[in-house]
Fold:
Amino acid sequence: MVSCCSVEKLPEEKKDGLKVIALAGNPNVGKTTIFNALTGLRQHVGNWPGVTVEKKEGIMKYREKEFLVVDLPGTYSLTANSVDELIARNFILSGSADVVVDIVDASCLMRNLFLTMEIFEMGVKKVVIALNKIDIARKRGIRFDVKKMEKILGVLVIPTNAKEGEGLEELKKAIANMAEGNVTTNPVIPVYEEPIEREIEHISSLLRGTPLEEMYSIRWLAIKLLTRDQEVIKLVLNYLGSGKMDEILKHISELEVHYKRSLDIVIATQKYEFIDKLMHQFVIHFGEVKETFSDQIDRILTHPAYGILGLLGVFYVLFKFVFTIGSPMQEFLDNTFASLGEFVARFIGNEAVRGLIVEGVIGGVGSVLSFFPLVFLLFIAMSILEDSGYMARAAVVMERIMRKFGLPGKSFIPMVLAFGCNVPAIMATRTLEDERDRILTMLINPLVPCSARMVVITFLAGAFFSDHKALMAVSIYAISLFLALLSALILGKFVIKGEESPFVIELPEYSLPSWKVVVVHSWERSKEFLRKAGTVILLGSVAIWYLSTYPEPIGSGLSYAEKLGKVFEPFTMFMGLDWKAAVSLIFGIIAKENVIATYGIVYGIGESEEALISLMQSAMSDLQAFVLALVTTLYIPCIATIGAIRAEGGNKWALVASAYNLLLASVVGVLAYNIGLLLGL
Amino acid sequence: MGRLDEVLELIKEGVRTSKEIAERLNLTVEEVDGIIKILESLGYVEKVEMTSSCQSCPLKKICPGSCVVFKGNLHELKKSDKKGT
Structure:
């Protein structure tokens, strides 16, 4: 581990007599681009001593002279809160660098100059500022008086657009001149309010005359002591002794009382305001703050009321897109599997083997696999929503609703994740510190329909609601989410809410999705569906086929599946569901897609999906299909999700979640069916 | 009270997006995002890794990425050292 203030200089043999140039700056300011431009292919990549943080070095040539360029980790400040910051801070403190090139983003200069001021406060004189991304700043209407900026900051400032190579020759020249000692600088130092300055002077007076004065900027040490930097406190304690250190700490406490908060935020705030004042002297035009396209759309999509309608509307369009494009492809695949079954059946003489292959494997897995186009299109649609930036807005809308229902705001993370898969969603409840919040979120999370349950919803919507498929699918999603929120409200009465940790979301600008990213991402996700079809669903299909065929074929009343289904039928009949639905739901606990695979076997042995749908339509009303979709979405979570709840919350909560979901599905199923009957549906 | 303090206060109050904070304080969203980064480096807020559960998911080996994710960063007020309280 790198310790603060361990002033380890770059070994002389490594420097090889070369002047050392350190590149510092915030992350994503174009530091790597500048490093590559300065060094070309003359690079070496290793690790910083004792840590696994990448260290890049390279040789810069300028007019026959060579310089060793060291790329420091990107940081926003030089506090001691991260390894990256410590590495950058220690390297600069060590004095190994003959020149520090501070790369700043001209398009958001305020936060970049915060780091610059910290470098200046460390007493570093030889600093060149690369005012990078100047092109973006120009586009935004930001204009600088560079000469004035140099004068005010007291160092050289070179405007650059590293991507286009603009200003890089000037930067090289400035670096070389400064390294050779041909440039005089006088970096500006932030000035704080009088009480802080008085204490800086007091501490400085105590430090003067100690060996520390030779190694560090006394002012920097004083400021770091005020911010209670533990490493600096330890360092100074060695030289001042506990008596003087206690006196310093007492003064710090008095100042904290005066400002009513920690001095690190006080000093940071004053430094920030100091930078603002400086900027007003050399920034000619700050650019106009216009309402962007994203802002205009967000007025609707993140609005407390319209946002909810927007969310439902987006999901309606999503399903419409999936069904409109996917249904013909699904039918084609379905017919292909039916033909395949017929074709294979001709070559298998043994009845049992033929049944297993044609009805169990091709019938069961095929009925699920025929949904691949719909699944792929759904993932395409979801990827578009993610890549366009909409999902972050959906998260904001969901978070606002969830808070109203007593859920901790941050539980929107597992809730959003659950649309893909409930297992990582359950694991994401770890982001909630409060145990009770975690349990509450874990209990309601399985009520969010995952992609597996989407397949079942899609199947039943397609089979029974040909004119209103998308509306049916969205209504199942809406009911499930509403029940999740209602459950949170009810369970929250029993599970006491803990203290919430406030957070803030940075919304990205809307952008056109990258088609490459969308297709690759969707394919990667869809592969899981195919893999599942080849493993869990295949095994499930074989098991269902066996139970449906032995000891006597289905329909005889003697097959194991019928017997199993009949056990539960007296219970499911209150929801209008027969033994076939009951046995499907039982196998659906292994993997939700098995609900369809089971129907594919128990209803349509040897039949195409067209025939299966026809058989189902003759045996089931639209209302019953709707109830089945609802119950499938709400009842006991799949085995993997139960396992995740058990791993995260223990046996007790896995049992509670299963029991609660079963109870909720039963109540909702019975109510939905009977209300539907009353309404004449 | 400076801008860093004001942003921190609004986060504590429960303002959830940097856009809302920017509107309240009459700042640009970029500036608010920048202030949040500074607050993060000072240890007042910390970034929440939203996809970390995908990385440690027991189904990771068989799942190439079912997790629904979204662009954008989320920072929460740090509790451990009581700085943010």
Summary: The CA atoms of residues 369 and 598 of chain A lie 13 Å apart. Chain A touches chain B through 77 residues (CB under 8 Å). Chain A has three domains: 12-179, 194-286, 306-496+515-678.
